[in-house]
Amino acid sequence: MSTSQETVTFARDNLAEAYTIGGNPEKTATFYSSWSKGDNYDQHLNPNLYRGPEIAAQAVADFFPSSKRGDAHILDVAAGTGFVAENLKKHGFMRFDALDASEGMLQKARQKGLYDNYICCYLDTNKLPILEDTYDCAVTSGGMGEGHIPYNSLDQLVRVVKPGGLVCIVMREEFVNHSQYKDLLEPYMTRLEKEGHWQKVSRTVVEKYVLEHNGVVYKFKVLPGQNKTE
Ligand SMILES: C[S@@+](CC[C@H](N)C(=O)[O-])C[C@H]1O[C@@H](n2cnc3c(N)ncnc32)[C@H](O)[C@@H]1O
Predict the structure, then answer these.
(1) Methyltransferase domain: which residues (predicted)?
(2) Using one digit for the tens of pLDDT, what is the confidence trace for 22-52?
(3) What's the whole-model pTM score?
């Protein structure tokens, strides 16, 4: 199915606005809640233009053998209206919780009945309201960018994922060396590895993650708990 030029323009303009808001959790949440109205977000970021959720689901599926997928407990971080869970379901995953800063986005996800729990929360350096070692996987697509998930909150994902579990981050490649992550995100990921919190499984660049922009897919395996950060 083709996408109209008008939809492409809406997608481009809204993404530009979403990712330039600049480090303010309330503004980010308010912006997305307004974008989610009607079916605007879902229509603008349809799979023709935004492949991130499909890419994230494939990356998670590649990590879990099909026999384990039905039981795998997954935290969809910056879940939005539920695109990642929709794609994970196609691979046989069934148990999802959604975490997102925007109540409006979560409300849309609720209408689809995709998740067991909806956690309205801005992921930052504060402790998430989730017990440690709760999930087999934490995954995000589109959650990283200016005004979105801070680089130094990733240890919170390590904390809530069980040893042996997966943290999978899918984001725009150009953001890695840009905006709030420049010279910070990948060094922080390396630091978590050096300190024994997680082990890098892969870092893969993918074409056309969103519109004409490449994406990068990070996969980290969480290591046993005595090294978890608090
Ligand atoms: C581009 S959307 C991606 C949503 C969904 N993952 C998808 O692929 O459609 C980004 C989402 O991240 C959420 N978000 C941004 N920063 C966040 C943070 N620090 N903690 C939790 N959610 C955040 C926004 O509310 C928004 O729903």
Answers:
(1) 74-165
(2) 667 888 999 999 999 999 999 999 999 999 9
(3) 0.96
